[in-house]
Sequence to fold (288 residues):
Amino acid sequence: MLGDNAGTAARLIAVALAGIVLTACSSPAPQAAPTPVPSVVVVSPSPSVTPSGSATAAPAWLGTRVLKIGSNGFAAAQTTPPELRNRSIVTTDVLPPPGDGRFHSTIQAVPAAVLARSSWSSGCPVKAKDLRYVTVGFRGFDGLAHTGELLVNARAAKALVTVFGTLFAEGYPIEEMRITSTAGLNAPPTGDGNDTEVFACRPVRGKKSWSQHAYGLAVDVDPFQNPYHKGKIVLPELATSYLDRGNVRPGLIVARGPVVKAFAAVGWEWGGDYHSLKDFMHFSANGG
Fold:
């Protein structure tokens, strides 16, 4: 889970930065020209798309209630608030949504403005030149098409575009998809984040070795609906109601379902198959 600290204030900042991102992306990147990726055209929504009338606005308190961190370095898991037990929040657009409602994608060298607002630094285990700035369409819980952004290892960029194109066609809902800054990554937890994201320059939870996220080779999908669970630790901390995997709700990833199949098709493995813990949000290129 990467974007747990992304609350209302972070969303407003992201919206303000959107103009900078678009400006940066409109000019050819100095490192390399953008790589065109074929678009996947969706003529009509899949029957599995959540009707827009069933989506709700985010609670006013979302992202604002900081949780106390315990001696183990994690905040305690808590009962899921009623407003989030069947979470289907309307997406707040950070980038302009596709005007035609179809899937679109881009891959390009990372613009300096984007790199500056990410968690990348020279101390990360991957060089900036080996990352790519990727935009992909995604279907929100509101049933509408939106545009997300990802920071991705160059060798995984095309595969992930293929995956998200498949998920768009399947009508799998995603709440938000944006890049988190170093400050956001290290901010105190609020236990209610739900950002679908790839890159995060951090170690594996509870260890000193680098996470696959730090290489841009892992992705967390709808973390709130698909929490991390090991013993008493649940991340996001308020997502405990989603530990009941038999209660299938929009966004919940199931074994042999469309999300697992889409990642498996490009050779990525699912954290829901782990034995010592369950990381239902997590997919990675090497299974780690």
Notes: The radius of gyration is 17 Å. Confidence is low (pLDDT under 50) at residues 5-51.
